[in-house]
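Our consortium's second objective concerns turning raw sequence data into structural hypotheses that experimental partners can test. To show how far this objective has progressed, the report includes one record in full. It was chosen at random from the queue rather than selected for favorable results. The single chain below, 257 residues long, was entered without modification.
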Amino acid sequence: MAHFNHRRRGQIAGVFTAFSMLLGAIGSAAAQDSPAPDYQAIVASPDRTDADRQTDKRREPGKMLAFTGVKAGMKVLDMEAGAGYSTELLARAVGPTGIVYAQDSAAVIERFVKDKFDIRAQSPAMKNVVHVIRDFDDPIPPDVKALDLITFFFAYHDVTYMPVDRAEMNRKMFAALKPGGFLIIADHSARPGDGLAVARTLHRIEESVLRTEIEAAGFRLVDEGNFLRHPEDPRDAAVFRPQVPVDEFVLKYQKPL
């Protein structure tokens, strides 16, 4: 009888697990099928800060949100969230039925972010955000799976001069996405041949080098956004005080079905 009860409990547990996975899949599918939010209305939200509106002038957030395809109910990971500018926009887009995991390493928070994210986190718009403080090469909590979307905005160049196993980081991102999920990665463009050499000094990265590293993890390029391209940029100066608008690339990758 004990053996029977043990087996029965195992069967019930298995059914429950399968049912939970089915519910998760249904929820994810519902998020994918939901209509796109009004991204411009999100950007125009009256409770956003003046500082964020200044950042909007160079970041084209309405176009970026539309390019990501983020929708209500989605599960999103925002890599190197920093002070949370993009995190908050994503949180507004996924709404109360979605969730955004905002990742940063303890070292980055200590050196650069300080209390900026914590201050932003007090806003009602951030209620569905979970701050994930983990190393870049192990960025995702083990219980977080089947993400719809990962964003990595203007920070991949940073991890190239940190003690980070980027191949492992990219594999972890790939594993955390559901089949068909997307990785949107944007960064400041370096000149051909610069590779990673100017990542620390100019905060740029050669696009072809980044592509090679991301695609080695199994991601498939499906789209490119040209809305932050500035061919007039000679790409030989640091990005913080540019004489002309900075040339930036935006790539959409997908985990194959």
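The partners drew two points from this record. Residues 1-26 have pLDDT under 50 and may be disordered. DSSP finds ten helices and seven strands in the chain. Both points have been shared with the crystallography group to help prioritize constructs.
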